[in-house]
Write a structure and sequence with these properties.
Elements: H1 40-59, H2 62-65, H3 70-86, H4 94-128
Length: 134
């Protein structure tokens, strides 16, 4: 006897034809619904982080002292924002997007101090290991 009368097996978690709506597939878990304002945190950080980097550089007069190192102050915060644009656009990922945006703005403000701290640490290590000669 042919198997044409058998019904296909329904697997757990797979949406069926009755579960889909006109807008798209059915929501499978709480928090998986689309976030209509997913773009707010990445956009805010994309605009605010370079502005903060610029203001800190002007305040600390870094444009005349260390212009080459300022490139990282603009690029690194934006590199932290990029994953926020690429994350799934669900409510569950909202906090991750906000955290990345806040971390990017914090890095933009703290970048000159971070570069200074790394420079001092390298100097101390070279001094203690005898690599600095007079």
């Amino acid at each position: 006897m042919p198997n044409s009368t058998r019904q296909p097996a329904v697997t757990a978690g797979a949406p069926t034809a009755a579960a889909t709506t006109a807008a798209g597939p059915a929501v499978t878990a709480p928090g998986d619904e689309t976030d209509p304002r997913w773009w707010v945190a990445p956009l805010a950080a994309t605009v605010v982080a370079p502005l903060l980097s610029f203001l800190v550089a002007v305040w600390a007069d870094l444009f005349t002292a260390l212009p080459v190192f300022l490139i990282g102050g603009f690029v690194l915060p934006l590199a932290l924002v990029v994953p926020g644009w690429c994350l799934a656009r669900t409510r569950r990922r909202r906090q991750a997007r906000i955290n990345l945006a806040a971390l990017a703005c914090l890095l933009a403000v703290a970048y000159p101090a971070l570069i200074g701290g790394i420079g001092v640490a390298i100097f101390v290590v070279m001094l203690l290991t005898g690599n600095i000669h007079s």
